[in-house]
From TrEMBL:
One of its GO terms (molecular function) is ATP-dependent FeS chaperone activity. SUPFAM superfamilies: Fe-S cluster assembly (FSCA) domain-like, P-loop containing nucleoside triphosphate hydrolases. Binds and transfers iron-sulfur (Fe-S) clusters to target apoproteins. Can hydrolyze ATP. Residues 3-71 form the MIP18 family-like domain. It comes from Halorubrum persicum. Keywords: ATP-binding, Hydrolase, Iron, Iron-sulfur, Metal-binding, Nucleotide-binding. CDD domains: Mrp_NBP35 (cd02037). This is Iron-sulfur cluster carrier protein.
């Protein structure tokens, strides 16, 4: 067994999203074999960039299966080479930055961001959550974050909840203080937090953006290397109209959109069992189809979501229909982040 034999076996492993085998796609970084007496080890480095995404986990399992009868111990590692040196990168320890955005307020964007972050952490990923909603930072309440960030005057150490490292504009202001910041101030504080917060090694940094297409969004698009964005909407037409504005904003800055997530997608009456489409139906899926984007999933209108937000317990960590709906979105976000990273590694766009 030599490297060529290993690569021949790996050529039978197909990428479920890119539609070719991992060797042809250039997703095998390196193969190394070592022999010790009658035993040996094969080490395979794969260009996988979305840790704990179901599809990338399946690729890794298929690689192990392809090499299972070789008699070799199989050791896998995953990395996507970066063109920039570590000292040139904005967030060198963060593998994926995912923005959660909406064209208008009131569609449950922060709820979606919190549950995506908590859901990724539940999968086993190392996760950070940056509440960048300058004018309405409510993530600390939604995760019941009583601990404040610690600082030595130069760097900021974020607190953790549910295995997620947290930073919020709410930590920087008094409890009842109104936030009156002009564009240059927003740019300065966002940039400072990006540079000064000790995020450490993260698989995903989820950014909860303010609604709309203003200064904060522009600063983040210009400052951070976004893997992609999640657009949150409700089924109603006015929300869909505003969601399109968000899509155009990311399009103008060549930022990948990982998909459309729909909130308040119907209400199941706990008394009669009937399902009521209070805000309409199918709007998020239709928007995704119209713009040839993935539909990440829909979350029903459920009092448990409101209770979870008020009590600081993300619904995705519970059991039931709504928790399952959030978990579908979490897995789709991770899968689509992986598609973006593998596509880049293989030279596709």
């Amino acid at each position: 067994m030599n490297e060529a034999d290993v690569r021949e076996r790996l050529a039978d492993v197909r990428d479920p999203d890119l539609g070719d085998d991992i060797v042809s796609l250039g997703l095998v970084n390196d193969v190394a074999l070592t022999e010790e007496g009658s035993e040996g080890t094969v080490r395979v480095s794969l260009a996988l960039g979305a840790p704990f995404s179901p599809h990338e986990s399946a690729i890794a399992d298929d690689v192990r299966t392809a090499l299972a009868d070789t008699g070799l111990d199989v050791e896998l590692s995953a990395s996507i080479p970066d063109e920039l040196d570590a000292d040139e990168q904005v967030l060198p320890g963060v593998k994926n930055v995912i923005a959660v955005a909406s064209g208008k307020g009131g569609v449950g964007k922060s709820t979606m961001a919190v549950n995506i972050a908590a859901g990724l952490s539940e999968l086993g990923a190392r996760v950070g959550l940056f509440d960048a909603d300058v004018y309405g930072p409510n993530v600390p309440r939604m995760v019941s974050a009583e601990e404040r960030p610690q600082t030595d005057g130069e760097t900021i150490v974020p607190p953790e909840r549910f295995g997620v490292k947290l930073m919020s504009m709410d930590f920087l202001t008094g409890e009842d203080d109104p936030v009156i910041w002009r564009g240059p101030m927003v740019h300065k504080i966002i940039t400072q937090l990006v540079e000064d917060v000790e995020w450490g090694e993260l698989d995903y940094l989820v950014m909860d953006l303010p609604p709309g297409t203003g200064d904060t969004q522009l600063t983040i698009l210009q400052t951070l290397p976004l893997t992609g964005a999640v657009i949150v909407t409700t089924p109603q037409e006015v929300a869909l109209d505003d969601a399109v504005k968000g899509l155009r904003m990311f399009g103008k800055h060549d930022t990948n959109v990982l998909g459309i997530a729909e909130n308040m997608a119907g209400f199941r009456c706990p008394d009669c069992g009937g399902f009521h489409e209070i805000f309409g139906s199918g709007g998020g899926k239709a928007l995704a189809q119209e713009h040839e984007l993935p539909f990440l999933g829909g979350v029903p209108l459920d009092p448990a979501v409101r209770t979870g937000g008020d009590d600081g317990e993300p619904v995705v960590l519970d059991e039931g229909e709504t928790a399952d709906a959030f978990r579908v979105i979490v897995e789709n976000v991770a899968n689509n982040a992986g598609v973006v990273r593998r596509r880049g590694a293989s030279g596709e766009r």
